[in-house]
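W.,

You were right to be curious about this one. When I first looked at the sequence I had no strong expectations either way, so I just let the prediction run and decided to look at it fresh. Below is the sequence, 190 residues in total, followed by the output.
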Amino acid sequence: MAAAERAHWPGRLAGGIISAMNKTLSLALAAAAFCSSPAAAAPSVDWDGAVAVAQASPFAESLRADLQAFRARVRAENAELREAAAPSQPKDAFASAPACASADAVYFRAFSLEEAVRFLQPCAKDLSKAYGLPVSIEKGLVDGKPGILVGVPAMLPQESQVLSDLDCAVREQRKGRLLGLPASVGRVKP
């Protein structure tokens, strides 16, 4: 399965579940309307699942109102499910961590690699708190040269939100440089 297909898989799954729930709800509405009044004519179900009955008893009207309220709740939950299943766009991870503001400041002298790594440790702590998993900033190789490696646990999947947010912060927002030094995001062993 290609990465693009995997990215849309949760949305397709949610769409299928929602469609099945709507069909089941329509059939339940039709059955409830038919059973609610012995004198009622056979119900009909339109494309939207609305139930129409020729004659309706007060019980049937009450049931219909309850079922419509239930349908509104299901639609609201469906909307929440679709929103949760939609792939989210990467954001600048450093923007959500106050200690990372120092990575964007301009300094009068260049940092050594060791100084830069020490200087960015509070940023790593804030990112760890924000994402709920360990984020490290350490010395490493970036394109074969010494640089800053922003690391997350190796067990984290490549398409995780944390990795995409950190990658956006380092590669896109800061052009692959932190404190003037080459930087990269990757998975590291604990």
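Here's what jumped out at me. The first helix runs from residue 3 to 36. And, maybe more interesting for your project: The chain has two domains: 3-85, 93-188.

Coffee later to discuss?

I.
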